[in-house]
Each structure stands twice: as structure tokens, then as C-alpha cells.
Amino acid sequence: MELVVQNSDERIDKYISTHSEYSRELVTKMLKDGYILVNDNVVKPSYKVKENDLIKIDESYKIEQDILPVEMPLNIVYEDNDIMVIDKPSGLVVHPGNGNYNNTLVNGLMYYTNNLSTIGGNERVGIVHRLDKDTSGLMLVAKTNKAHLILADDFKNKRVEREYYALLIGNFPTDTAFIDAPIGRSKENFNKMEVHEGGKSARTHLKVLKRYKDYTLVSLILETGRTHQIRVHMAYIGYPIYNDPVYQNKNTTEFGQFLHSKKIKFIHPITHKKMEFESELPPYFKNFLDNLD
User: Fold this and answer.
1) Which residue, 148, 156, 134, 133, is CA-closest to 84?
2) Domains along the chain?
3) Annotated catalytic residue: which of 13, 132, 134, 244?
4) Known catalytic residue: 132?
5) How many Å is the Cα radius of gyration of the chain?
6) Which pTM does this prediction carry?
7) pLDDT band at residue 42, thresholds of 50, 70 and 90?
8) Fewer CB within 10 Å, N- or C-terminus of the chain?
């Protein structure tokens, strides 16, 4: 990861912790171990950054955390010896990080079973792909490393089909749309993504399902899987997802963005059987639509 300093005279440990997901304590350790460079040079944690300094962070550096099993309700749609299909609720973080090491889907999976793939490391056992904290719906979990590797390759080569439902603010003007706009991390806010020329290719297919007075329910299918892709693309075209706490720029409720992983289709990594699952909208989402009717 790279950061370009803009108008700052802060200590580098404080600057990085403010503009990234790393704690100040972890940044200090990374600086001392040479995993963070400024203009390709090792610096001390007391170094004060200057405008246009180029900070390079080697993200391979990891501090092992004690990830503990935590009992929690899991909505398991399907399970066999190799995979699981989980219906994730809105508000649940997928894997530990950024100070949250106890209340994530990974903690719940570890309590439920000891059979989870280990390819992603201690913090991501079983996790082949992820959903944002406030995005609900279907996601795949690997119980064996063999299944994990095959599924990861299927995601990479677009053999896994996922369909999302989202409620957009505004009345979308056409029945279908194709958004082809590159996405990269925002230079102003590490926690946000944005469309810009230097970003990675991102393509989203949109289909209108139902129009309301001030909202539009749409189906979305991704050709690519960039971070926050749907949320960024919808905001970019002027129809942000309702209740999105990051990209809507309005007051939101605790539920978060009205975005749901509705359907998933894939070939079972071991049996090669065609698998297809569909999830109901969360009650909060569905009730809001009913009230609009």
C-alpha cells in the first residue's frame, strides 16, 4: 500500500494510523522492523512527514492475534464436508481486523466447527470472499484447503455468479444500464473507494426491478469484484444506495446500506454439481419496501 502525504507535519506513526486501518502501536513496530519506508528510506516513528512524501507499507507484515471462537447464531443455508453457504446478516463483520477481533463471522465459524480452510491465515479461516459489514446475504465458506483453492480460482475467473438487490435513491431513468468505470482507493480517505483513471477495471450490470416514488429497486450483477464496487458505482452515476453510511452523504440508520447478496450460482468444487441458492431480503429491508408500497 502507498500513501502520498498532503499538507501535514505530523509524526509518521500518527499520520499512518489516521489514514489507514493500522493501529499506532502496530505502525511503530512495522517502522522499527523496516516494513514501512518513506521515499524508499527507513525512518523512526518520530519522523515528521512532509508534503509529497511517498509512504510505502509492506502489507505482508502481520501480528498474530488470538482469534477466539465465539458462540453466535449462524444462518447456514447449506453445508457438506467441503463447503458452507452462509446467509450473513447486516451489521456482522466477516473477519477480524481494525480492532474487532471478537465479534465477526470468523469467530462464529470457529465456534461452530474446527473444519475450516486455513489458506487465508488465522484471521480468515474459511473465508474465500467477503461482504461488507452492512451488506447482507449469501456468501461461500470453504471447509477444506482443496475446496478453498478451487473456489478462489472460480471467483478469479468469473465462474461464480452472484446477483445483488439494492434500493437506490431516486427514480432510475432506464430499465437497464452497464457501468464501466475504474475504481481505486480514495487519496483523501483510506476507508473510501472512488472512481478514478488510475483505478482497477470495474464493471457492473444493472436491471430495474421496481420503481417507487423516490426510490428504485434494482438487480446488480458484477463482472469484477472490486472493494465497495456496487456502492461506488451507484454513487458515481448519481443514484446512491439508500442508507449507505459512507457514500450517501446523508444521515443513516444503524442497519446500513440496503444492499443484499440475493442469489449465488457455482459449481461445487469437489462433486462438480451445479449449486444455486437464493436468500430472502432482511425484514428491515422488506418492511421498508412494503411501506413504500
Assistant:
1) 148
2) 2-57 (3.10.290.10), 64-157 (3.30.2350.10), 158-293 (3.30.2350.10)
3) 132
4) yes
5) 20
6) 0.79
7) confident
8) C
